[in-house]
Description:
By secondary structure, the chain is an all-alpha fold. It has three helices and no strands.
Amino acid sequence: MSITTVGLDADDTLWHNETIFRLTHARFVDLLADHGDEATIEARLAETEQRNLRLYGYGVKGFTLSM
Length: 67
């Protein structure tokens, strides 16, 4: 069976969490700034999150463990 439909939840309760996510993401990049440039850190985090998606799922748990 193939996926034919994808649904997105645009619930306004998530917008506050997006701000916190962005701040945490920026702080993570700042913490690693001595070890690489922003683009490299961003790319490695994205790769790690993608690789861990099947293990941890999508959300704060996966994001935190991937960091």
